[in-house]
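Possible regression after last week's pipeline update?

I re-ran a chain I had predicted before the update to compare outputs. Posting the input and the new output here so someone can diff against the archived version. Not blocking, just want to make sure nothing changed silently.
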Amino acid sequence: MNDYINIDQDAWDALEKIAKCKTINKDDYLSKIYENQRQIGFVVDGIVRVYHLDEEGTEYNKSFFVKNDLFMTSLDGQEDPAVFVQAVTNGAVIMFGYDAYMKLSLQYEVLEKVLSRILLDYMTQKQQREIELLSLDARDRYIRFVKNNPELSEKLPQFHIASYLGITPTQLSRIKKQLNNQHM
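New output (post-update):
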């Protein structure tokens, strides 16, 4: 978490008291339907995804989080019942209850700064993703995804990448084949 903002020892000690370390297995849910639990999470190891499930049961990956990333299970406390947070791989996370974290942030200003940084990073990523979806074709979105996320592009199942890019796995397969043929 010190990648976000340098946290002093007193704040760390207070955080440890509300932290819940959790080993996660592939496909475990950190937040699921009708759980209105706003939490802040820190990925110690592994990959976590946030996705939306539509009425037909189709999953749309919204974002991925990897080692040393911070995330929130809900931004407004009114969690969309069709938005889930799930482990894509085995790993570990540290979870903090949002209310307990906010109470601590009143005592330790640095913790409020960490939360502000999480929200700023989220908004920046969301804006960039929206621009890419609006202005780039599927091939260019894939090229940019691989360039910006080399670890994810190697470790994620292709159907997760396709969902994130807003295309089908078949479309992704065609794009990859086309790119491989161009580099031969």
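Follow-up from reviewer: compared with the archived run. Residues 9-135 form a domain with the Jelly Rolls fold (CATH 2.60.120.10). Marking as no regression found.
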